[in-house]
Amino acid sequence: MRLLEKLGFALAVLVLVSPAALVFLWMLSLSLKTELDNTAWPPVFIPNPPVWDNFAAVFARNDFLLYTWNSVVVSFSATGLAILIGVPAGYGIAKMRATRAAMVILIARITPGLSYLIPLFLLFQWLGLTGTLAPIVITHLVITVPIVVWVMIGFFEGLPGELEEAALVDGATIWQAFRHVAFPLARPGITVATILAFIFSWNNFIFAVVLAGRETRTLPVAVNNMLTFEQISWGPLAAAALLVTLPVLLLTLLAQKQIIAGLTTGGVKGG
Amino acid sequence: MGNSAAALPNSTAVAAPGRRRNYARHYGWFIVPAGAVVLAVILFPWAFTLFMSAHDWKIGGGRLYVGLENYRKLFTDERFLWSVLRTLYFTALAVILPMLFGTAAALVFNRRFPLRGLARTIFILPMMATPVAVALVWTMMFHPQLGVLNWLLTQLGLPPSMWVYDARTVIPTLVLVEVWHWTPLVMLIVLGGLASLPVDPYEAAKIDGASAWQAFRHITLPLLMPFLVVALIIRTIDALKAFDTIYVITQGGPGTSSETINIFLYLQGFAYYNMGYASAVVVVFFALIVSLAALLLWTRNRVRSA
Questions:
Q1: Three-state DSSP state, B62
Q2: By residue range, what is the domain housing residue B48?
Q3: Which tens digit of pLDDT belongs to each residue from B25-59?
Q4: What's the whole-model pTM score?
Q5: Residue A77 near chain B (CB below 8 Å)
Q6: What is the pLDDT of residues B55-96, one digit of tens each?
Q7: Are strands B55-58 and B62-65 parallel, antiparallel or unpaired?
Q8: Residue pair A198/A161 in contact by the 8 Å Cβ criterion
Q9: Residue B294: its chain A contacts at CB < 8 A?
Q10: Which of A10, A157, B180, B241 has its Cβ near the most Cβ atoms within 10 Å?
Q11: Residues in Cβ contact with B202 at an 8 Å cutoff, skipping those fewer than 6 apart
């Protein structure tokens, strides 16, 4: 009876994780097979032998390196800026118990990404910024800033205030108390905020699909264009998809503890 | 522990009121830079959208004040009204199924078992993966002739499906992707709730001879309710806003049979460049999202006080 229960439980776990695992394994399988195997019926599951041609094909065409560079620039800038302004903001809101400021962040979470785009699109045109990466970085702040502020509010509220108060009593300014006392204590929270902001910025599609020109596409937009505009075979498509999402998957595997902690504090999600 | 409750809109500032507040206003400076950004990229677009929605505004075509005409047109635009119904249909399925599966998954992951960390990480991979990349793989799997899903169906003795290539099956198919994608978020929120449950009631129930189901029904479920409501609201908002996977997989097709409000909005704004009309869609869309979220909160409060 005990054994049966254990087996049933193991089965339940298997049922839960297999949809997730199988889709990614299928992505990997498609990317490592020849075109002949990819369109075979019944499907070929294990690449035999695995071929790397699809990955070579992705890099050979499509300025893939340029788009990778664009994605890196956009995600790092949007995350860095968000940390720079979001961490103090989270601190301020936590200290002031500014519920209304927190509500604004919630509104940002509720609003569909497209709604920001219509006015900002016109604004960027008017400012002559179209065709550069600046509009994409700026719009990605819509995702990264609320994530950082939200995570940091939760984190700073959980910190005991005694140490800072002691610093204040000793004559430190509130900036010094933040910079030398609260900030170092908040490192774990900042790590969580950075990882989440980076991932959701990297994954974002909606802002770049509207704002990016030929030279300023981010990776998700580039991959979508491969599907829509170029009659391209499955192997290179799967290889490109895998390359786009691989950094994020690796980051998730490496930092799963921080990610889970961050996500449970507020169900943050970008876009 | 109590951190999970931070997702509740009304619980952000519930800590000790008795603390010294004399420094409070100085902390305002910490918020100024973020406030400026929020003003520029969140509040300014909002105000400007309201303004634009009262104009006939086409890119390259100038603008004309039309008052509420865009809204009037919107409520008689059959294509828009269908997109609303479609969105509600999609949302209902894409909320209920992840709630059920996510809660079940959380109950499993709340127990200790070997390799739990690894299993949990694999389980949350879908929600972290790049939606466009994932949508691409699903598109290939949905291929009616060569897709692996139809091969699976035939192995199980079922007839093959047209998946996203048929107007009748396209929405349930997109729901399938959405369920795969976002069940992990529900699981994480509920798991956070389970971790915060007290142990005492269970011991008392055990002494009183309650069955596992009774304990779940009368202890776990009521205590879990706040977390379930948070998950429900977040899931509802996200399902209403779903865009990436629908856009990549079908772009609203075949025909307009998977055109949700968000896709309609995209097409109006960035395919037809009807900026004024699209702005009106934004306003109505936002009102719909807020009122549904408020309705859920209100129902929950009614249930609790009854």
A1: strand
A2: 2-53
A3: 678 888 888 888 888 878 888 888 888 888 888 87
A4: 0.88
A5: no
A6: 888 877 777 888 888 899 999 999 999 999 999 999 999 999
A7: antiparallel
A8: no
A9: none
A10: B241
A11: B215, B219
